[in-house]
């Protein structure tokens, strides 16, 4: 599952992903440093600043998740160097836990001067009070401009900064102000189409930095005039050109963007967060930060971001464009390989790669913006307004299908069963609003990509009707669709017009799942705990798809969803039982076989286990599926997947049986479960609660 080697070419000149690439020596120093641990009342979490040579006072902006109660209402964060004094910090709250404490926030911090490769520890604490009132950075004499020129030479020009600062702020305080500009690009400047939007986030920082995160979203849906756009984009900061891009063909329902920065001094340090604390906060799985990441993988990630192809707008940046492609892809899991490497190591090269792929996700044709959606002023296409809509070409004309079908020349073939989550972790760690857009767009696509007869009729009584992404789906497709919906609902702002729909989709699916468990238990007997789903070969149950689903259920359960927790606890009978049924004749090695024998008479879309472990064991041997005490049928990462399921059960439920099964599987030398395997590929380097994280 590791990436192939890449040749090193010229470094991209656009900021964002490429600007984060650092020398290997810095990565080793950063990985060796320990995150500080809270030890005093009020202390919340430690951070590590990894220097980039910027001056004192350089403003670092990053996202941060908080555990319930750690940052209560009426409190603000403080930041203090572990070997020095206080650092000014600004908070912009994105959403809150049920108890009113902060769940997700965007932080801006004035950092100390750190040489390239130098590190410094920071402790975040909570104190009663309000954010210090001070004058925000002023736009005097500053300028951020976008020019878009069509094939006929007509140029549309927009001065962004005044407009950005007039609207609802995304950041507002003494260290940073940020606002958004959204505008339709005139058809004459967009190659004759009416579907191209400019969405630009503009920031001013107290250190003098001016940031422009500019996105060209050809995503307007369900209105006439849409199609492929052709244009030239030119961007200027403070009167100086910072980028010029020729876009000869941008298919509808795609987007691309770049982050540009004009600053008087060097960049601020990279902020490394504590992955164990983020797991406690429900943001991510519990990745094993103790193991670290293999230098060879980090070097390959760094080399990839330095190639000329990486800088091209609408390029795939090594993503699998044909998402029907199965196998050991490094982008499939609760997070991608690069995101996991970033969380585990804090390495700049992993961060650059993950951020770059989050940008590249824009070129997948799953962006469907409804100008009348959301609260009426625009939102991602949803089935409340379009209950019959199916974006597949077989949907026909509206309201059954899109007004302009997805073109066949996009170069992409998205698939819900093999979709990566490219936006959530980069949004969580950077706070770039564009990545939240990407996350929401993909989540909404997961529903409208489902056949309406499967997702249900919204007029029908019952949970999840009209938004069901589980019924008769492949189990892995259900897992990844729910992952997207859960992450988007969890991360969205409290007043985001897309949030009510995303939350209804997430909660409706979990409620539907819970309502079905009693009936499934009666059907499944001793092996109860399997989520039914479509599988191409009758009589075969892929346990690794159950493990995929368990990762999504565990994530939702950590965040407090009671239905998801109920479903995860119900699944534990199978997830744990496959390793505890030796006395019934079932070889525990077969718990991680590629396939487990199941009921060949189950209906379409309803893969169903046999009703007893003894019967399953006999069927496994008869079909030649059994490991027979070895690992011949476990030639992949299937043991890793089972370990992460068991770790999640221990983490969420404290199950003693899951702990015993985890200890057995971790100790029998199953394929790809050695420490070096997880260092080479940390995608599923997920451990139970209690593993060390800082200090």
Written description of the protein model:
- The protein is an alpha+beta fold and 695 residues long.
- Among the domains are: 144-262, no CATH class; 359-402 and 414-684, Glycosyltransferase (Alpha/alpha barrel).
- The protein is 29% helix and 19% strand.
- The protein has helices at 24-32, 160-166, 275-280, 295-305, 337-345, 348-360, 424-430, 433-448, 452-455, 475-491, 499-524, 543-558, 562-577, 613-623, 638-653, 656-666, 675-680; strands at 43-50, 59-65, 75-81, 86-87, 89-96, 102-110, 119-128, 144-149, 155-159, 171-172, 176-184, 196-205, 210-218, 229-237, 240-250, 254-262, 270-273, 369-370, 379-380, 540-541, 596-597.
- The strands form 6 sheets. A 5-stranded antiparallel β-sheet has the order 4-3-7-1-17.
- It is globular and about 80 Å long.
- The two termini are 31 Å apart.
